Amino acid sequence: MAVEISPYLYPRGDVREALETYRRALRGSEPEVTTYGQIGMPDPASADLVANAMLRSEVVGVLMVSDYPPGMPEEQRPPAGGLAVWGDDGPMLEAAWEVLSEGAEVHQDLSPSPWGTRFGTLTDRWGVSWMFDVAAPATA
Fold it and tell me: Locate the Glyoxalase/fosfomycin resistance/dioxygenase domain: which residues (predicted)?
C-alpha cells in the first residue's frame, strides 16, 4: 500500500466556494465531496456542510478540504492552514497566483527575491495562507 501526505485545509466561510476556487487555481478535477449529512450527522442545519472533500490537482497533488465539524468549540478548531507552492512552471504558478489573489490579502507581490526566484505570499479570502516560489525554468 502506498502512503501519501496531503495538505488538509479548513477554509473560513463558504467551503464549497473555496473548493471551486482551488479547483480552478490548481487545475483540479471535480472534487469528491462527502457531507456531514452523508455520514449520519443528525442536525439538518449541518447536513450540507463539507465533512471531507478531496481535490486531485496538477499543481499540488491531492488537496483535502473540510468545514469544521458541527459543534466543535472555537478554541479546538485547527487553523485554516497554509501551503507552500514552488516549481519552475512559471505560467502554471502565475495562473494559480492570479486566481488565488482575487479578494485576497497580498502580503508580498509575486516579485524577484534575493535568492533568485520570484516569491510572493497571500492569505486568500478564506483565511488560508499561500507562499509561492517560482524558479526560472531549468536549461538543458
Answer: 7-132
37 within a domain of the structure (yes/no): yes
Rounded to whole angstroms, the Cα distance separating 87 from 53 reads 25
Question: What's the chain's average pLDDT?
Answer: 92
Number of domains in the chain: 1
For residue 58, give its domain range. Answer: 8-68+80-134
- The overall longest dimension of the chain from CA atoms, in Å, is 59
- Residue 75 forms part of a structural domain: no
Q: Express each pLDDT in 115-126 by its tens digit.
A: 889 999 999 999
Going by their DSSP bridges, the two strands 50-57 and 61-65 should be labelled as antiparallel
